[in-house]
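Hi,

I'm pasting everything inline rather than attaching a file, because the server keeps stripping attachments. The sequence lines come first, and each chain or strand is labelled.
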Amino acid sequence: MERLMKIDRRIIYLLGAAIVFLTMLYPLGLPVAISDLARQTYNEVENLPDDAVVILSPMYDSGAMGELNPMFVALFRHCAERGYKIIIVNTQWVQGPQIVHKFATEIAEEYGYVYGEDWINLGSKPGAAIFLQTAVKDFWEACIEDFNGQPVESYPIMQLVPKVTAEYVDACLVLNCGTPGAPEWLAYVCQPEGIKLVIGEIQMSVPESMPYVQSGQYAGMIAGSRGCAEYEQLIGHPGQALKAQDTMSAIALMVTLFIILGNIGYLATRKK
Amino acid sequence: MNISTDPAIWTQAICILAVYTYLYKDNPIWRLAETVYLALATTYWFVFYFFTYIQPAIVDKAIGEGEWHYFLAVILGLMIFFRYIPSVAWLARYPMSFWVGYGTGYILSFEPAVWLTQITSTFLALNSIQNILIFIGVLSTLTYFFFTLAKENPVVGGVAEVGKWYIMIALGSAFGNTVLYRWNLFVARANTLLFDWLGVGQA
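And the predicted assembly:
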């Protein structure tokens, strides 16, 4: 029984890697049920006005892109399908807008979206809370130039949004993986201005964000990779997250088995 | 299989494999990858901060447009380096004091609204199991953290014990989610290795 307590971590890594590669190469196609939360989140985005302007904020860097890139793709695609104007901007997470630019460009082309008219990438802005508060007062002054270094006021889409207030912006869709993140958007922009806030959250922080959903401060939340898989099904475009669910289910099973084995070993040795 | 010919994909793949060699044990390949990453990240951030903070504020505004008050912030910022001169190290406290005071005031003017909404959202009608569980959870967890109340009192101790269970369940949930998140990161990297680099399943 003591052996169960001393399983070499490399065996666990090797087994985990084998499970990941095998389930990716030979998907099982396990069904993914759609939760109420995913449906609520989908409805919040779906039911925005037809001429809605949304801010899509990729508040993450390369460390979280595995989970948040599929969410960005799903949200951008959903907004494009509905014909919303999309403004990509974040603060502090300098890699975010660079990472998502490729996806945004591809999806925009697919839907005939014109850069500067239907969507724009304003890049990453320094300042965190100060940037957000400035954006509420004067969005152009806060952003100055877009991803390509052009003055923001030269684009037609930016003429629609001189300030980030409920008058000009219908929803903020924030992909969150740390600080600054969705809580800052909530405190400095969405709650004071009464703008709807929908977030995409990494799996690790889902329990932390649930109270905000429960209180209604977050109108919806894509909860981790699993939540994204559900969202992809709702918009009718299965993507990376849905593909990963077989692997994640197998990994969850493996981790559970190792936890049980470890506890059996612990209980057996404790009795001695 | 259709192995990629893109140098960027090859660089990604080699870096991923180099970093994961650490899982076996510490080794020179891992240390090389770590050093390269640190050097790249440091340079990247230096350049980013120069072009997003220093150039717009100092070069463009202060020097270019003659808005000299920006230099006050520069002087205040540079004062932080006084900590390396023992005789005047106390001067380094001023920028820090300014920053702490400004930050605290700024946060307190916005964030309480968020916290208060969190508190009011626990004032629930006890008409569903979920609401009852939230009600019990909030009260018992708060009781657990009332360190001035004697836990020997059976009522207080009992409620605090329930609170402890709530905390354990919350921590378990957070831990479980963290484990899955870490594996998810690996899945994304495996995706790069299998499909982007090796081109498995591609014609």
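Chain B touches chain A through 38 residues (CB under 8 Å).

If the labels don't parse on your end, tell me and I'll reformat.
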